[in-house]
Design a protein that fits this description.
The protein is of the alpha/beta class. The chain has a single domain (2-324), classed as TIM Barrel. Helices cover 27% and strands 19% of the residues. The protein is built from ten helices and 14 strands. The protein has helices spanning 45-57, 76-84, 99-109, 123-130, 135-147, 167-173, 202-210, 275-280, 286-294, 321-324; strands at residues 2-3, 9-10, 12-16, 62-66, 89-94, 113-117, 151-158, 179-185, 215-217, 226-231, 237-241, 254-257, 262-264, 273-274. A twelve-stranded mixed sheet has the order 9-10-11-8-7-6-5-4-3-12-13-14. It has a two-stranded antiparallel ribbon with strand order 1-2. Strand 9 (215-217) and strand 10 (226-231) form a beta hairpin. Helix 2 (76-84) packs parallel to helix 3 (99-109). It is globular, with a radius of gyration of 19 Å. The two termini are 24 Å apart.
Length: 326
């Protein structure tokens, strides 16, 4: 088992397959002409499988595939097939634009829980946020997932003045659909122009929804990043990932592997461990994984205090979100 010095046990690995994406959301990808990682520097299929097996042998029993957009990778299907053979709960986060091409494979392999990144329910706003006219395709693929019996979680990065007026609309969507909407507080990363004024906090989101509906809190399971709620009588649920206003670091069980094979022990960690480089040199990567876990900071990568008033996003040392993995 992978245990850090704060006695947190880590059994959840997020693997980024690529830093490429067919959308251009500005909070994730800094520029339109982003310099994507060359294919030779990305983990190859055999390498992803081999490194994942080392993590599984150390106690990881859940793997999430991320990107970029994981399904734009040409060998994404083979990667999913290989990892589905491991004794893990396998899932992925996607923008859903290509789900129709993979849904039969996902169903065949038993991957039945999908997180979809969707920050607006308005077609024009979608085009502005993503710089692509794919709203109908994305929304249609969400309906396809629901019709095929998949568990669907919708990830919404809430930004003041951008999509905060849609919070109640997203909650209303759960009335007749078994959708699980997760509002994510806007977080700072390299190049995404984070400002405190753009942040809509968990408390603000809850107050807004409560002014329209009677809500009830739902039980939190160990290691969950979400504060969960349900509107009485609604089929679905909603939740808030309160990274900025109420961090959940105390029982974090997550580790990250970037598309170029670097291990991060926290989304906000400064340091990285080059697992791919070590693996390609024929080294045993198990000690490197264990030490990286031990070195994990108590909270927020050790980069800033939970008090937002004291935080200076310009001092944050990290990659852009797309190069880390969603």
């Amino acid at each position: 088992m992978l245990v850090d010095k704060f006695n947190r046990k880590h059994n959840y690995l997020r693997i980024s397959l690529t830093d490429n994406c067919n959308l251009r959301c500005n909070y994730c990808m800094p520029e339109e002409d982003y310099d994507f990682t060359p294919a030779s520097r990305l983990m190859q299929v055999d390498e992803i499988e081999a490194i994942a097996k080392v993590f599984v042998a150390a106690g990881v029993d859940k793997i999430r595939l991320t990107g970029g957009e994981p399904l734009v990778r040409k060998d994404a299907g083979e990667i999913i097939r290989r990892l589905s053979a491991l004794p893990v709960f396998l899932t992925l986060t996607t923008n859903a634009s290509r789900i129709h091409e993979f849904i039969d494979l996902l169903e065949e392999l038993g991957v039945k829980s999908i997180n979809v990144s969707l920050d607006t329910l308005i077609r024009d706003t979608f085009s502005i946020l993503t710089k692509r006219d794919l709203f109908d395709q994305v929304y249609g693929n969400i309906e396809l997932l629901l019709n095929r019996g998949f568990k669907v979680k919708i990830n919404v990065v809430v930004m003041r003045g951008v999509n905060d007026k849609e919070i109640v609309d997203f909650v209303r969507w759960t009335s007749l659909n078994p959708i699980h909407v997760r509002f994510i507080e806007f977080m700072p990363f390299e190049g995404n122009h984070w400002k405190r004024e753009k942040l809509v906090t968990w408390q603000e989101i809850l107050a807004l929804v409560s002014s329209h509906y009677t809500i009830e809190p739902l039980a939190r399971f160990p290691h969950e990043t979400v504060k969960k709620y349900r509107v009485q009588g609604f089929m679905g649920t909603f939740a808030v990932i309160s990274t900025m206003s109420s961090p959940f670091c105390s029982d974090c069980n997550r580790l990250r592997l970037t598309a170029d094979g670097k291990m991060k022990n926290c989304l906000f960690s400064k340091g990285e461990s080059d697992l791919l480089g070590a693996y390609r040199r024929g080294e045993d990567i198990r000690p490197l994984i264990s030490q990286t876990v031990v070195d994990k900071a108590e909270a927020l990568g050790g980069q800033f205090a939970p008090d937002l008033i004291l935080m200076d996003a310009n001092q944050l040392v990290n990659r852009s979100m797309i190069s880390i993995g969603g």
